[in-house]
Design goal:
Distance between the termini: 33 Å
Order of helices and strands: HHEHEHEHEHHEHEEHHEEH
Strand content: 15-25%
Strand order of the largest sheet: 1-2-3-4-5-6-8
Helix content: 25-40%
Structural class: alpha/beta
Number of strands: 9
Number of helices: 11
Shape: globular
Largest sheet: 7 strands, parallel
Radius of gyration: 19 Å
């Protein structure tokens, strides 16, 4: 019997024990679909003084858009440039514009509509992904997003990172878990797909705290989740804390074990869009082992197989 035949998880077309984003997109669209990251330079209320200044302690100068397009270019130009970069890995011609850098609902609705409609009108577009903060969602913006979700495959990505308000304060998030739930609720009650981001390894967080955040997110039954490894990047407040030895970076085996625990907690139908993260090589201080992303992903596959485990195995048992 092959490993694939032994795999009890129903979404095992790519021989994984969790529902990958690529598997979901292949099933939905019948081919490989790529996300193309954009930078529209909308900014963030946590940088311009509206909520705070300096941004989150882990956020890079490009507002977590280090691999996104050039904000000096318009949306069609950015999409064309990104398509050109990926043409050797992707032949279907279908893609999802990903408004990645900054808070992409942080503008008036007329501006947002123009942005989203421009991306939707680009040839080959089959959906939209919009990254933002939960406190940048209000009724009017939620209504706009609901309208779009009736016309295309829309996902709104919300950075939660941790349910701990103490951690949020330390990280200069400038919003609480209660604020997150309010924004999430505006989207969920309109049937809008939401992808929730968590970061493992934040300063002061124990393993149990990270698992507690995963349990809380699992209870919301989101469309998707992203599980990130904390990257310590040059030029950030986090890097200064690390250099002062105020916290330590996670080890590779520690991270692999933790992510497997979190995957087990997730609902079987929730897409696991990401199980690690990318840190720009030129800026990464630690953990350096994360540069070998395939070793991390393979390690997670091997650990789930060793455990005879899969996504959702412990969902609802806590």
């Amino acid at each position: 019997m092959t490993q694939r035949e032994q795999n009890p998880f129903p979404y095992s077309e790519d021989n994984k024990r969790y529902l990958t984003y690529s598997c979901y997109l292949r099933r939905r669209f019948g081919c490989k679909v790529m996300k193309l990251p954009l930078n529209t330079d909308l900014g963030c209320p946590n940088r311009d003084g509206t909520k705070g200044s300096g941004g989150c302690i882990f956020c890079s100068a490009r507002r977590s858009g280090d691999f996104a397009g050039d904000p000096a270019e318009d949306i069609p130009s950015q999409l064309t440039a990104m398509r050109e970069k990926l043409k050797n890995k992707w032949s279907s011609g279908k893609f999802i514009p990903y408004f990645q850098a900054g808070s992409n609902t942080y503008a008036d609705t007329a501006t947002l509509r123009r942005m989203y409609e421009t991306a939707l009108g680009y040839e080959g577009t089959v959906g939209l992904s919009i990254a933002t903060r939960a406190d940048c969602i209000d009724e009017e913006k939620a209504d706009l997003l609901a309208e779009l979700s009736q016309r295309t495959y829309l996902t709104v990505e919300l950075g939660l990172q941790s349910i701990s308000d103490r951690t949020a304060l330390l990280c200069n998030r400038c919003h609480t878990y209660g604020d997150f739930l309010e924004g999430y609720g505006l989207l969920a009650e309109r049937g809008i797909n939401v992808c929730i981001h968590l970061i493992n390894g934040l300063p002061g967080e124990t393993r149990e705290m990270m698992l507690r955040s995963a349990r809380a997110v699992a209870g919301l039954r989101p469309h998707a989740v992203k599980l990130h490894l904390l990257h310590i990047l040059r030029g950030t407040a986090l890097a200064e804390m690390y250099e002062r030895k105020e916290f330590g970076a996670l080890g590779q085996e520690e991270y692999i074990s933790l992510v497997c625990d979190q995957i087990e907690l997730m609902p079987p139908e929730t897409i696991i869009e990401r199980i690690t993260g990318d840190g720009a090589r030129r800026d990464l201080i630690a953990p350096l082992w994360s540069l070998n992303k395939f070793a991390v992903m393979n390690g997670i596959d091997k650990e789930l197989y060793r455990r005879d485990s899969w996504q959702g195995k412990t969902f609802g048992t806590y």
